[in-house]
Amino acid sequence: MNIDTASDVHNKDRHIQYALKQMVNKENNIYDEYLRIQELRNDDSMPDSVKTEFDKLLDERALYLSYKLQTKEQQQTALYKILDYLNLLDNKYDKERSNDIENLMVKIEYLEDKIDKIKSFPNLEKRNKKKKQKKQN
Questions:
Q1: Alpha helices (runs of H) in 1-137, residue ranges in sequence order
Q2: pTM of the prediction?
C-alpha cells in the first residue's frame, strides 16, 4: 500500500468517525430537548398558546424517538437471530464463535439500554397514540 492510499484511507476514516460522533450528539440532543420541553410544557404558568407550540415540538421529537425505538428493536431482533445462528455452528469454529457471541451480547446489551432509555421518556407512548388516532380520523 502506498503512502497516498494510506493517507486517503486515514482521512476518510476521520470523516466517518466525525460524522458518527455528530449523529450520536444529535441523538443525545434530541433526548435532552424532549425532556426539557416536556418539563417546560408541564409548567402551569405557561399560556395555552405556548403550550400548544411546545406540544408541536414534543410531537416532532416523539416521532423521531419512536422511529429510533423501532429501529433499535429491529436491530436487537436481528442480533438475536445472528446469535441463534452462531449457536448452531459446528464446534470447529469454537474460538471465533465465542468471540462473535461475546461481541453480539455486548451490542445487544447496548441496544437494550438504549431501548429502555427511549421507553422511559414521559408521555412518549401517549403522544404517539394521539398522533395515530388523529391520522385515522
A1: 3-41, 48-88, 94-119, 124-136
A2: 0.73
